[in-house]
Amino acid sequence: MAGKAVLTGTHFMNGDEACCEGALAAGCRFFGGYPITPATEVAERMSKRLPQVGGVFIQMEDEIASMAAILGASWGGRKSMTSTSGPGFSLMMENIGLGLCTETPCVICNVQRAGPSTGLPTLVGQGDMMQARWGSHGPYEIIALCPASPQEMFDFTIRAFNLSEQFRLPVLIMADEVVGHMNERVVIPPADQIEVIDRAKPSVSPAEYLPYRPGPDGVAPMANFGDGYFMHVTGLTHDQRGYPTMTPAAQVEMTERIVGKIRNNLDRILDYETLLLDDAQVAVVAYGISARSARGAVLAAREAGLKAGLVKLNVAWPFPEQFIRELSHQVKCMIMPEINLGQMVLELERLAQGRCAVRLVAHPGGTIISPRRIVEAIGQALKERP
Amino acid sequence: MTTAPAAALARHPHDDLLRTERIPHIWCSGCGIGIVFGSLMAAITKSGLPRQDVAVVSGIGCTGRMAGYIRLDSFHTTHGRAIPFATGLQLARPQGKVIVASGDGDLLAIGGNHFIHAARRNMDLTIICVNNFNYGMTGGQLAPSTPYGAKTTTTPQGNPDEPFNFCALAAACGASYVARWTALHIRRLTNTILEAIHHRGFSFVEVVAPCPTAFGRRNKIRGALDLLRFYYDRSVVKNHIAPGEATIDFDHHLVVGKFVELDRPTFLDHYQMVNRGQVEAWPATGVDASAAGQRKAG
Ligand code: SF4
What we know:
The structure holds two protein chains of two kinds. Chain A is α/β, with parallel strands linked by helices. Chain A has helices spanning 15-26, 40-49, 63-75, 86-101, 129-134, 150-167, 177-181, 248-263, 266-269, 289-303, 321-330, 345-352, 371-383; strands at 9-14, 28-33, 56-59, 79-84, 106-114, 120-124, 143-145, 170-176, 183-188, 232-234, 272-275, 282-287, 308-313, 315-317, 333-338, 357-362.
């Protein structure tokens, strides 16, 4: 049964479904996954849609296998993804590290629920944000996008694939249960208006090819299985040939490459939006569903005459360090609402270095943060003496 | 005395399949892995498959280093995860042949869950398992194959566990090709690997191989040749017997041979059939609605 990869038109769908459609529009043709609330709808829609467009869906035996399978599929030349939530995300950590070390493009959508452990499977959380950054062992940089609506689930999933192909790494979509399950309008543009980026292929002969020799942007062109380049791919520390090299010097070169390709390309990766920030004395910095609470709060605060502004982080990792540092010179206080007991707020504290106050509006999970609490925090911050 | 030119001396029949710049390899002298590796290269050569259409995937361990020495697209993955990685690789490029080469601990302890499910799905993969009854790379710890009573560094008083019979397990899970040889059955091993490569579906080849360094030494069979002989002398060839009877019993018989060879659709065959609507809905015989209705009414 043939079907269209890009469902151009205006739809009413939930965030998980929009994620699936974004993936297909970006060229995803392999999904390996394991059911888990509240991400199951991504897998379910993929199982129906992928065969329509010549792709393959496979339900693996667990999340460890799912993550391994999407890495394998990516080396087989297909754009690949999986979706999961907290417990499955924990299981994926080792192979996410393999993907980072072997520089394998793929996408993981984590529809966050409240933890720790099995937690509240059907209810919202944002407690995996530091795990997203640091959950796999060793030094690395990661890219994590934070959609706040079904439309952004569609748009950001396309961007996640593009970034993964451009920079050769697993890219995380750090969604949450509310965004995953809410139904809203999703506009899918015509296929020719969607920017799709594919991995750079080697332009040299197999004899000259060094699988990990970085190009001008720090990223090495990638051969796929079957292209005749006979590359070796390993999770051991390796040299530019891809061969295991057990020396501190090789470790320095390899980690500098996988970290450097992100740190040296921030202008192509970072994405945040601001609202009413120019004259703001208080900046609410938020991501995912909490950015919608924050937006409501900032508008309400302005109505009450309080000078509040919003920073909505579309990309949470890498963190927009320079921008936040500059912001800390301008405002009296930065407020971070998040559905955990304080994770991304640590980044604000680290960057503010005492230049402005930093406040957390927290909930450990199960419900979104009410805008009223953020408005109160804004009011409180403006009352405090500098 | 005449000496052969150095270039001629340096050649090995499998040089074109070797990443010669990575030699010397890490394996101990007397290790059985090299023999299996040689058989694998000979089988790949004999298969006549275009080189770019063959990939080798391995996990972690001494055997897992095979992927690093073969001049093919080769993938050295995480501990236990070679099979699911290979699953993705194969499904993404089904025209390619994907061979998984790894050790017993990697494939059947930490990777056991993946093994049974890939066999169940009849995933089109060839699995070469070098079984040396312990974890060699980390110095000789207990494996799921370690014989009852054998000494390893984590069973210093002797192994209290019953070992797996990998061939029986593979067959029970649905593997469509299952065979076992020792590392001294070189010719038969090479032919078996060749058959396994040409087989469509989940083919499993277990090779009982010596690890003199970590396993033999602790169990009073120090010499590599002694250990090779120890396995070989106990082996009896029993083709096509029930896989459950293909036991590894060091007091009596170490059964070798080809135990299973079935022609059955692979995962991808079934997937394509289902997507084309060629598979009848389950259950084939529907519930008799009228009878059910009558019972309710009564
Ligand atoms: S430790 Fe054992 S398995 Fe490993 S290379 Fe040495 S002999 Fe072979």
